Amino acid sequence: MSNRSDTYRGRLLRVNLTDSSSKEEEVDPDILRSFIGGRGLGAALLYNEVGPGVEPLGHENKLIFNAGPLVGTGAPCSGRFCVSTKSPQTGIYLYSICSGRFGRMMRKSGYEVLIIEGKASHPVYLVIHDGEMIVQDAGILWGMNTEETERNLRQKFSVRGGVSVACIGPAGENMLKVSCIISEKRAAGRGGPGAVMGSKNLKALVVGGDNQVSIYDEPELKKIMKNAHQLIMDNPFLMDSISPYGTATSVNLSSAHGVFPVHNWQRGVFEDIDALRPQRIRKEFLLRDKACPACPVACSKITAVTSGVFAGAKTEGPEYETIYAFGSACDNPSMESIIYADMLCDQLGMDTIACGVTIAFAMECFERGILNIRDTDNIELRFGNGEIIPEILQKMVKKEGIGDVLSDGVKRAADRIGQGTEKFAMHAKGMELGGYDPRGVKGQALVLA
Ligand code: SF4
């Protein structure tokens, strides 16, 4: 059993990229007690740290990474970390939760909160290990996709034992407002946190170390964890639906209730639904199930395409929202193209929801004759044409031709195209809508408000 002093207490490392300095602090105990961890603590810290006039992509914006008190304790489903910042898409508060090992390794590095401020004069990455922080030149990594970046850094630091990496791809480097932060093929995805990292010339964070995640009353926590584990195992939705099919199981639910957005939100039922069902993914594309540390659910699905034009694509997913964005929203029944697009978005560091919804919008512009074939660089941007999605994503990340118009998401694309297109640009406050139609899921309207 540990004493109180070495358990969770908001150990914070503040890193200033402008002068490469860092300072150890502790979160104000009143704030910690009130907001505990995760998104609550991230929001409270951001509120105190970033004023209303701060530009999201300016050097005064800050990035907050935090891992809550259960992270690293072995509690079921606790393998998460939270990223909070001011969103370049909405101009307001952004939080994004990402699973995987990064949160646990961050706590093992000695910190529960990282606040990153300022802007480096050139591309850098941070190594935070056993209570020490160093800023390293990232020139060689700049331009690499997230897979290459992570592989490179993990190889380099494997001598120090386990490390975890969170990084941006070319989309974040180019400050696309649809860019995200990727860690172990998982994304802190919504609202453009990758662009904030890119604006700071920060390519990656490497965290790890040997610090023990101390528990104040281990026997009591073990008892609670055992109960929680049993509750999960007894939950039929988690074990009979989420466990075999992942979040893709929601395709069946949304479709049955007519709230699965189709054809850029013009309908709520997809005619070719069998092509997108989770049962098909499991039968035809699944390689294996994967779980975050200490999770009995194992909702992650590693899938691959073995034949056809997208043969060789391999991804962790696709999640429900990705199937909606690249599938039903684009009227696209090609699961192969969805898996490929999911892989590409992870590699380039782009949010699949933002990209899919923006492409669906462009398809509607094309079919209404607002965009013509010259506007789209000779690409037939029609609903159902899943084969063109990867090409559009590549153009978006390079800000090339039609990709430049779409690169900052659907609201900015509608602003640029004009001609009344804002009426069918599906976003709330600049961020593309997730895949539950609030006309049928009333509570979702509150989420979007
Ligand atoms: S495997 Fe899925 S259910 Fe389990 S912690 Fe990770 S994201 Fe959550």
TrEMBL record:
Q: Would the keyword Flavoprotein be found if you checked this record's keyword annotation?
A: no
Q: Which Pfam families match?
A: AFOR_C (PF01314), AFOR_N (PF02730)
Report domain Aldehyde ferredoxin oxidoreductase N-terminal positions: 8-211
Q: Does the keyword 4Fe-4S apply?
A: yes
Q: Which SUPFAM superfamilies match?
A: Aldehyde ferredoxin oxidoreductase, C-terminal domains, Aldehyde ferredoxin oxidoreductase, N-terminal domain
* SMART domains linked to this entry: AFOR_N
Question: PANTHER family this protein is in?
Answer: ALDEHYDE FERREDOXIN OXIDOREDUCTASE, TUNGSTEN-CONTAINING ALDEHYDE FERREDOXIN OXIDOREDUCTASE
**So what family is this one in?**
Belongs to the AOR/FOR family.
Q: What is the protein name stated in its UniProt record?
A: Aldehyde ferredoxin oxidoreductase N-terminal domain-containing protein
Q: Which organism is it from?
A: marine sediment metagenome
Its lineage reads:
unclassified sequences, metagenomes, ecological metagenomes
